[in-house]
Specification:
Strand content: under 5%
Strand order of the largest sheet: 1-2-3
Oligomer: single chain
Radius of gyration: 26 Å
Number of strands: 3
Length: 455
């Protein structure tokens, strides 16, 4: 049997189309290696190739065995946990807002809208789960630029200014898109861009910084400092993971030291810049973020910001392991309840309930991080790591907020009211599920050494 006939019969047994090219190339290489061995023993090439093909075994049997290994595997456990957290998050929001409405006759929580957003998000997540995530790398640069330029144009043409911040794009029907939350989608795209640069040298560091800059400038123009810091740290971690995997032929110890220093210095430099060049209002907000005991600084704005941490501590001081707190505050007194859902769960239903929700959140994304780091496909490794890291950072900040240790406006997976954050969350969850699903089938790709910014 000729090599082409053998490979055709073998790959016909592989049901996953994504896996076929890689398997065909690998088997063909094995046949070629064995053919060369036989030729070195004196056989003619045709005779040697036929002997090598025979050594591979029956193509149908081999193909069936390979099909068992190279087959998409649905991560049902993770999907089940996502559904549990989605429903639990919705129910806790609904129950808490019902109590606030009963006490004050007013709430901005719309249960039907939030339920519809959850359903749409889950459907979107499942669709993305079945999609081939490796195709993103083919258009990662274009998608990255399209997202950034689209957000900038939307902010310029249809931007909404709320509380002195221009972070939203107005949509028909009174809805809006949150620009900083949309930019979370750039993290896996950034990972895919770095994947295209494998094999290049130190020039990659310059390219990596240039790709960060448009997002950094856009976030600063939105005055979303916490999201800017979170995105910067996420980018640096993704770049560090690529360097550690030795993609770019660099001195890993030196570069890793530089990246760690950068991750520490960037937020510090940003804070110093605000303290030196901006007015008392921005300075007071920054100080209040990291001085939760602050009750008064430079006027009423500082008092308003520190009030959030005071409210959190008051609710937690009387909390019990299970059951309602002895000092539950009037929920209407909290300016943005969606940022303190864990605190309210602890106050209304007990610390253990809040701890279980927190534990499940951390477990889910640590599990995603672990699966990503063990990926054989390098693109899946880096994209999955970026998605998991950005969620883990958000959860860490959210926990600090809900412990009264600081106050940084933040979004928490499954516990936020906003439509933009929820949809972005489900898109990234779908991407991570796709990476898990195709962990045994996704092929590696090679790209030419060129960039949108640099030749």
């Amino acid at each position: 049997m000729k090599r082409e006939e053998y490979l055709t019969l073998l790959t016909e047994q592989i049901r996953c189309r994504m896996a076929r090219p890689g398997i065909e190339a690998e088997i063909s290489d094995h046949i070629e290696d064995q053919t060369r061995v036989y030729m070195s023993e004196g056989m003619e090439r045709q005779e040697a190739e036929e002997a090598a093909v025979r050594d591979m075994g029956d193509p149908v049997d081999v193909g069936v065995e390979l099909d068992k290994v190279h087959r998409p595997s649905m991560p049902w456990g993770m999907i089940g946990l996502i559904l549990v957290l989605s429903i639990a998050g919705y129910l806790f929001q609904w129950m808490i807002q019902r109590r606030i409405f009963a006490e004050n006759g007013d709430t901005f929580f719309n249960p039907s809208r939030q339920f519809m957003l959850m359903v749409v998000g889950i459907v979107l997540m499942i669709v993305i789960c079945f999609a081939d995530y490796t195709r993103i790398a083919d258009r990662a640069r274009e998608l990255f630029l399209l997202l950034v330029v689209g957000c900038a144009a939307g902010m310029s043409l249809f931007g909404l200014q709320i509380n002195s911040f221009r972070q939203w794009i107005a949509l028909p029907g009174g809805s809006s898109l949150n620009i900083p939350l949309l930019l979370m989608l750039t993290v896996p795209l950034y990972a895919a861009i770095l994947y295209r640069y494998r094999g290049q040298g130190s020039i990659v560091l310059l390219k990596a910084v240039l790709w960060m800059m448009p997002v950094g400038l856009l976030v600063l123009s939105c005055w979303s400092l916490w999201m800017g810091a979170m995105l910067a740290i996420s980018y640096v971690i993704v770049l560090a993971a690529a360097v550690w995997r030795n993609w770019f032929r660099l001195n890993r110890k030196v570069i890793m030291g530089i990246l760690v220093g950068t991750a520490v210095l960037l937020p510090t430099a940003g804070a110093a810049w605000i303290m030196v060049f901006f007015k008392n209002y921005q300075q007071a907000r920054l100080l209040a973020m990291f001085r939760p005991m602050l009750t008064f600084l430079n006027g009423e704005d500082a008092v308003d910001v520190s009030y959030m941490t005071d409210a959190v501590r008051a609710m937690l001081d009387g909390s019990r392991a299970v059951g309602e707190s002895t000092s539950v505050l009037n929920g209407d007194l909290i300016p943005n309840p969606s940022e303190l859902i864990l605190t309210q769960i602890a106050a209304y239903y007990g610390v253990l309930v809040a701890a279980v929700i927190t534990g499940l959140l951390i477990f889910l994304f640590l599990r995603f991080l672990r699966v990503s780091l063990k990926q054989r496909n390098q693109l899946g490794l880096l994209m999955g790591t970026g998605c998991a890291v950005i969620f883990l950072i958000q959860i860490a900040v959210y926990i600090l907020n809900n412990l009264g240790l600081t106050y940084l406006g933040s979004f928490c997976p499954f516990l936020g009211y906003g439509g933009t954050g929820g949809l972005v969350m489900y898109i990234l969850l779908g991407l991570m599920l796709s990476i898990c699903r195709y962990k045994n089938t996704a092929p590696e790709k090679m790209y030419e050494a060129k960039s949108v910014f640099l030749p």
